[in-house]
Amino acid sequence: MNRAGRPAGPGPAACLLAARTLRDFGDGFVSVLLPVFLLNLGLTPLEVGVVATAALFGSACLTIAAGLMGAGYGYRRLLLGAAGLMIATGVAYATVHNYALLLVVALVGTVNPSAGSASLFVPLEHAALATAGRDVDRTRLFARYSLVGALAAAAGALAAITPEFATHWGVNRGAAIRAMFVLYALLGLGGGLLYARLPTSERIPHAPRAGALGPSRSVVMKLAALFSLDAFGGGFVVQSLLALWLFQRFDLSLQAAGTFFFWSGVASAFSFPVAAWLSGRIGLVNTMVFTHIPSSVLLILAAFAPNLPVTLGLLLLRAALSQMDVPTRSSYVMAIVTEQERAAAASFTAVPRSLAGAASPALAGALFAASYYALPLVLCGSLKIIYDLLLLMQFRHHRPPEERTELS
Predict the structure, then answer these.
(1) Does residue 133 belong to any structural domain of this protein?
(2) What's the whole-model pTM score?
(3) The domain containing residue 244 runs over which residues?
(4) b/e code 5-16 from CB counts within 10 Å (16+ = b)
(5) Helix (H), strand (E) at residue 363
(6) What are the two backbone dihedrals, phi and then psi, of residue 404, each rounded to the nearest 5 degrees?
(7) Residue bearing the bigger pLDDT, 61 or 38
(8) Domain count, the chain
């Protein structure tokens, strides 16, 4: 223990990056295995979509709670609680087989069908990371945070093929999938051990009422509304449903799906440093918009691709562009609010995204069940393009401190 009361060893930023690596590795294989697991239990595509919706809605509720309590209660305590919930979620999925109970587990648990950053961990980690460097370094730090998460998620997607290999060794496929949920619980335990190394005094000095937004309220609410539109569109093609689409339209094997999502995750991961570099030259908002629109066009084209190779090629190109707004968006939100507002701002921009994104997976499942296989992808791409144009119109002149400094 050092003089500041911090455990000896890695600093807070390193612990947060390592914890996200474990968490996203788990989300990576769970998002691919979840539809397979549910279909093996006899659920319909519509019911799979409803489970995904319940998971996203529950994540939204937990995220708002984390953001409201973050400033006043300290990040360490809340992150430890989140890690405990992750452990319980993995154990529950490994043992529960009833549809109604699975809905409850999805609602109150941490399983992320989108394999993205929609979880109660996010506002707490974002607020902590935002204080770890100077304004000019903030986007690079968030890019590194996104990079390790995406690489871990890609490795997790590849690990999703483990049950297929296990069947060659005489292991029952269902039992192998349940074992992966046990592994998910163990990853939660590892994350908890890392969070335990954070300082006990993570509470923001002189914090306002927990979760309060002050001078940045109107800007945060505008961003929240726009991010909700983006998330509603994205919910039509969360990774679990994209895997389901590939399974049903092309009869893709689990092994092939795991390999594809691995390379898709790698492509996304290495786009994050590029996003940080690009934002330093054209700005955060421009980087978000002008990389996002082409990715949405590629998704719409993939919906009508004539065969599997062309479809996968378009989706891989999309993956190389579609996530470049992730570190830039996180950095932008943290930059335009005060330090005391950061946890609340992260929560109030993340929660509407989760709530809006929770509505569309069930709709996508219904469309798949009705054999409208292309429509969810078209809706996703079209809504995201509308979001990008609105974001550019509303915020192209609202610059973060480092961009105002460069222009002065």
Answers:
(1) yes
(2) 0.70
(3) 12-198+214-407
(4) eeeeeeebbebb
(5) helix 342-369
(6) -65, -35
(7) 38
(8) 1
| Rounded Cα gap, residues 54 and 87, in angstroms | 19
Residue 303, pLDDT above cutoff 90:
yes
Percent pLDDT > 70 in the chain is 88
Cα separations in angstroms, 264 against 17, 46, 133, 267 = 21, 26, 30, 5
Burial class (CB in 10 A: 0-12, 13-18, 19+), 193: middle
Running DSSP on this structure, what letter comes out for residue 139?
H
Could you identify the residue written with the tokens 């919706």?
A: 53
Q: Is the residue at 206 inside a domain?
A: no
User: Does the pLDDT of residue 202 top 90, yes or no?
Assistant: no
Does residue 5 lie within any of the structural domains?
Answer: no
Mean pLDDT value of segment 304-332: 92
> Is position 273 within any domain?
yes
Confidence at residue 5, expressed as pLDDT on a 0 to 100 scale = 45
Q: Residue 93 is encoded by which pair of tokens?
A: 């999925």
Placement of tokens 């999309």 in the chain: 318
Residues 6+ apart with CB under 8 A from 342: 126, 127, 130, 131, 334
DSSP string, 332-359: HHHHSS-GGGHHHHHHHHHHHHHHHHHH
Lookup result for tokens 């509505």 = 359
CATH number at residue 129: 1.20.1250.20
The residue whose two tokens read 């509407």 is 352
Strand, coil or helix: 286: helix
pLDDT score recorded for residue 132: 59
Quote helix, strand, coil % in the chain, to nearest 5. Answer: 80, 0, 20
- For 390, left (φ over 0), alpha (ψ -120 to 50), or beta? alpha
Q: Locate tokens 């006899």: which residue?
A: 42
